[in-house]
Design goal:
This protein is an all-alpha fold. The protein has two domains: about 45 residues, Arc Repressor Mutant, subunit A, CATH 1.10.10.60; about 140 residues. Helix content is about 70%, strand content about 0%. Helix 4 runs antiparallel to helix 5, helix 5 packs antiparallel against helix 7 and helix 5 runs antiparallel to helix 10. The longest helix has 29 residues. The N terminus is likely disordered.
């Protein structure tokens, strides 16, 4: 497969060594900021001070490296969101932290990467699946706890809130729609979650500004 091949291998690669992690870290920085089509394996090898052959020992293609970068990205999101939702005693504060965390992670994803994902629908399908899982798991946990404590409106089922959130994210935060609307992932997600939270937070849970 050539450098720009985009056929998806469904099994994401596992990090096998510190050298592999160095490669992933460098690729993540460049891919998410500048897109993965404009960054070659030669570019990465030169920056890391290793031969292209050594790089290919860890990742046999750019697609395999891109899969590892996406896995690394979602792993870091999982770690941060798990930490925030491990204590849901203060629901408004946890929601604020959750939103700030997601904003920080989406800020890393720049328009060139979104543009490249438009030409890689199979890869974007993997991103969508992981994104759905993250939203259901962490926002779902917080919404469930919020309904029990009266911070989230009880007349709205938590599962329905999550499905509305998922539908909005899927409908807007996809490469084609973001390009059409001129949105970045950070701006799009912030707007979606703000609109939804304004509707589901109970009066007692609203933070005075």
């Amino acid at each position: 497969m050539n450098d720009n091949g985009l056929q998806l291998n469904p099994k994401a690669l596992r990090v096998k060594s510190s050298a592999s992690q160095r490669i992933i870290t460098a690729a993540r920085r460049h891919f998410l900021a500048h897109g993965f089509r404009n960054i070659t394996m030669d570019d990465l090898a030169d920056e890391l001070g290793m031969s292209k052959k050594t790089l290919y020992v860890s990742f046999p293609s750019k697609v395999a490296l891109l899969e590892a970068v996406l896995l690394d990205k979602f792993r870091s999101i999982d770690v941060d969101l798990h930490r925030i939702t491990s204590d849901c005693s203060d629901v408004p504060a946890a929601l604020h932290q959750l939103l700030a965390c997601v904003q920080r992670h989406t800020e890393e994803i720049q328009p060139p990467f979104v543009r490249d994902m438009r030409r890689a629908p199979d890869m974007f399908a993997v991103v969508e699946a992981r994104r759905r899982d993250v939203i259901r798991r962490y926002f779902g946990k917080l919404f469930d706890h919020g309904r029990r404590t009266g911070m989230i409106r009880r007349d709205m089922p938590a599962k329905l809130i999550i499905e509305i959130l998922l539908a909005a994210v899927q409908g807007i935060l996809n490469p084609s729609k973001m390009a059409e609307l001129g949105l970045t992932p950070k701006t799009g997600f912030s707007t979606i979650i703000t609109v939804i939270l304004e509707g589901v937070i109970a009066e007692t849970g609203r933070v005075k500004r």
